[in-house]
Structures are given as C-alpha cells and as structure tokens.
C-alpha cells in the first residue's frame, strides 16, 4: 500500500521503525511524575511518560491520512557494545544491576521498573536501525518511534525519564560509519536536550541546536541550564547552540527562531546528516511544558527541517521521538509534523481539533534577536 501510493505522487515514504516491546516500560501512577500517593486523592494519574501516548502515535500513523506514505520496519535491541559508543561502562553496569535488582528510581520521576531495561534497549536499537537504514542508502527519511525517550540521558547519568541517549547513539553511529563527517542535531522538545549536548560538548563534528523553554537546571541529574552561554568546550566551543525561548512562544516565534538562528547555522555548518529530536511537549496543551505550538507550527517545522536536509544532506534525515505527554494532541502534532516533512500539496492537512490561542510573538522575537546578537561573534563557523 505504501509503495503504491508513494509511486503515484512520486514521494519517498517515511520509514518508521517501531517495536511493541517498548510498551512494556511501566511508569506507574501517582501525583504527576512522582510515583507518590499522598493518601488524600481518590484518583491518581498515570505517569506522563506512559504507553498510551505512544499507542496513539502508532495508531494515527497506521490509520490517519498520511498512513499510505508510511513504511513500517521492525527493530532489534541494542547491544552493550553499541551502548558504550556514548555511555560509560560504569553507568551501563548501574542500569543492568538495577534491572537485576527488580528496579530503581534513578532520579526524580525516572523509574526503571521490571520491563524498563528491555524497553530501553529496544528504543536504543530501534533508533540505531533507523539511522542504519539511511546510512545504507535504503531510504532518505527515517523516524524512530521510541520510548523511553533519551535526550536527557548523559554519558553517565539518567535524567528526565531517559535511560539511554537514543539520538546520541545514532549520531555516533553516523560519525563512525564513514558516510558522515559532520552531523547536526536539532532538538525541538520543550526541555533542553542536555544529554545529547553533553555527549558532544567537545566535538566540532556535531552541531547541537536545542530550542526549549527557558527552564534552567532542575536538580543534580540535570545540572545544565540550557542557557545561551553553554556553547561547548575545547574544539566543540561554538558548536552547541541553545535557544531558550520564553514561556508562551508559539508557532510564529518558533518559525522566527528557525529563520533567524537555526537555518543560518545549518547552512554555515554544512552537515552530512540531520537528526531531528522531536518533542511534542512544546504544544499548547502539554502538561509538561509551557509553550504554545499548534499543529500548524509543527507542520511548518517539519517542512523547514526536511528542506534543510534536502539542501545540505542529500535529503538524509533521521527523526527520533522524545517527549509529548498530552495523549491525544501529541499524536495530532506528530501527524502534522510528518505532513510538513512529506509536503504533499494534494493531501489536505489534518484539521486541528482543539487549538486556538491568540499568539503574541512580540516578546519572543525580542528574545530571539538578543540570542542572535549574543552568539553571532561566538560561533566559529
């Protein structure tokens, strides 16, 4: 079905890598993400990083309007040797021992429960499969539909619901493959992609760009601020571009940030591969963020990023799933983003069921200009 539809419109499919085993990561119930029962609430909510959010993402891609343009691929778990390309042996051993011991809370909100380690290995392996598919020339655009997420996981530390840095492992695979000398990572999760940034903080072969709400550090597991002055170190100085956006930044603000900061940086860096880590928690209705992207904003970002890949990377684009915790709207925003990637004029956009927010982009535009002025003399490229 996918190949027939794609041939009619002369468009390559989006290659989605997925395995149901990732649903076996159980995060429990409690007060938001604490896992705690205070004793005075009749109804406890599911942890925000639960399997329902991913089930809806899978189903909308299988039955939604763009389903004919999706090619589904199986995946396999990552091997320990592959994990060591990004993570330290000591940290991997800590996770293995925690799994053997029946589970452990690794940091606030981040629970490794029975089944979690196998799901994490599948998420990492799925992302590596998605990257390898593109590196081997079997497709141009791959999407790793994974959980648990990964972009907060540092080489030696779990953080923010993340155990293994799926995108970081894929970037390292691209660099080691001989196909790519330089890789750009664009992170649009509402939270700073601190783990990915730390992994390549001293490298001039990886440009890490993170657009996130200006949330700062949230404790020992996340010491990074995501501020404009975290630029990298050594050879990597100037290759970590943080774009902390004010709360309430919406579609216009994000597009302005892409036009003023992201696009010029990618053009000057000249990557051989773009990795887009997609967080759907930047949406206007997400419980874990305070930004105001709608489906239309995600749709525009999808088109911008794919255009950049076609201009600079021969179309090579690997998309890796991160956050997004509104069980319904995250799936809709994912669909919209991939609509933008496909950019099919003959395909009417999926209507937005709930978004209406009168955006005022005056403040966000001023912040973006200030970031631009600060960084213009500090980026070596």
TrEMBL record:
Keywords: Chromatin regulator, Hydrolase, Metal-binding, Repressor, Zinc
Record's keyword annotation contains Metal-binding: yes
Histone deacetylase domain: residues covered: 47-339
Matching InterPro entries: HDACs, His_deacetylse_dom, His_deacetylse_dom_sf, Ureohydrolase_dom_sf
Pfam families hit by this protein: Hist_deacetyl (PF00850)
Top-rank taxon: Eukaryota
Similarity comment text for this entry: Belongs to the histone deacetylase family.
UniProt name for this protein: Histone deacetylase 8
Protein's organism: Stylosanthes scabra
